[in-house]
Fold:
Amino acid sequence: MKIEKLNENKIRIILNLEDLKEKNIDFHSFMASPIETQSLFLDMLALAEEEVGFVTKNYRVSIEALAASTGDFIFTLTRSPEIVEPTLKRKKVHMRRKAIDLTKKIAIYRFDDFDDFIAFCTFLDHTTVNHLNQLAKSIQLYFYSSQYYLVFKQIHSRPENLKAFCSAITEFGSYVHHPELFERRLTEYGHLVMKTNAIRTGIKYFA
Structure:
């Protein structure tokens, strides 16, 4: 298990297959068993507090969990900046599970603004994972409803590259579920900003 402190209120936890075996949890049980998921999550919170001082007691915590095609699980935990009043009964934790199958023909990520997209391009340009601009045959950027969407078509990267991609892009954007349906909305109502390899274009002109 690897824990990374992204900032004072956000951490990332990465579990590999060996970590899951120790908890008797595999990919399918993670997706199907909320009881096991909650137990695993509480264990992660305790370890995060011990290793990096990420305290969650009396804070609201949101969790994004995705499953990479390699079988690893990547959790991004965000803590509210303010302490909330404690209650007598601890509420159950609900997670937003994002099982991202990047072996599909299309994947879409949402950025809150253009600066977030450029920050992602800049990150790729200055790290060892800049090969990810060749992740798919087509990478287009759309503007729709005051947000930006990066559309990947005909994804063909190797599993190890997909793992690095999932880890990198979730710092800057959010995965869009049902991408096939949402792409139709983008092509009909959105504005195509970058048509040809948007990541390479973003790096060339803005990073």
In short: The beta strands are 2-7, 10-15, 59-67, 73-83, 96-99, 106-111, 136-144, 147-155, 174-175, 191-194. Residues 48 and 54 are 6 Å apart (CA to CA). The chain is about 35% helix and 30% strand.
